[in-house]
Amino acid sequence: MSSLLDRISARQAWIGSIIFALVFTGVIWFFGSNLQHFVEILLPDQGASWYFWKLPVRDSWTMNIVWELYLAHQLSVWGAIYWAQRNLRGKPYTETLNKYNLVTLGVNALFVVLHLVQTQLWFDGLAQDVPIWTSQGSVIIMLVVVLIIENQRRGLFMDRKAGKPFTAEVTAFFRRNHTYVFAWALVYTFWFHPMAVDPQLISGFLYMFLLFTQVSLAYTTIHLNPNG
């Protein structure tokens, strides 16, 4: 593994991940026609609190599989983050990959493929069991953490920094631990939706793949460079 880490730069992994994101988005679109027998039985939209992309009848076997896949994905990423914080925190960010990067890139790619297979076979995501506001709320929490982290550097509004309780100590705490929150928000939202062909869903998955890349390339210089 060490020789592989030395050969692959973070920039190469970043470019490869973008290509993967674009290609796999095309794969979702390509296999979308296979889901027509599911789409035809979806119930009509029933308002703002209704999630359209779920089957009318809950299947226990399907949902057991979905929850197991979600938890396996979530715990794997959290485990990698825990290892990285114990072994990489405080060390200089590098231009090459480390073990954390390889593991998280591989884990996320694996579960992206598994989610496609799961959707093709059973369709439903976590949305069958949990309300729509939980997915929306996870993203909102992530965005709030971003605002807290960036307050000391960019300010909260028009370059103006917020005062208490957004102190430097609070910002430092969230900066140290934000990866856990981000990983939960991303993985949970990822498994909330089926990989169906809809402009909002398919663009959302493309963006999700790019965010997975950002999480996976932590502790490298590419993670810190806003210009790529």
Would you kindly provide a written description of the structure presented here, covering whatever features stand out?
The chain has helices at residues 2-7, 10-30, 36-39, 60-87, 99-122, 132-154, 168-192, 199-216, 221-224. The chain is mainly α and 228 residues long. The radius of gyration is 19 Å and the shape is globular.
Report, as a whole number of angstroms, the end-to-end distance: 25 Å
Strand content: under 5%
Largest sheet: none
* Rounded Rg: 19 Å
Tell how many strands the DSSP assignment holds. Answer: 0
Instruction: Give the low-pLDDT segments.
Output: none
Shape: globular
| Integer average pLDDT | 87
Alpha-beta content class: mainly alpha
SS element count, helices: 9
Topology order in helix (H) and strand (E) letters: HHHHHHHHH
Helix content: 55-70%
List the helices and strands and how they pair.
Layout: H1 2-7, H2 10-30, H3 36-39, H4 60-87, H5 99-122, H6 132-154, H7 168-192, H8 199-216, H9 221-224
Helix pairs in contact: 2-8, 4-5, 4-7, 5-8, 6-7, 7-8
Any key phrases for this structure?
228 residues, mainly alpha, 9 helices, globular
Summed up:
The protein is an all-alpha fold and 228 residues long.
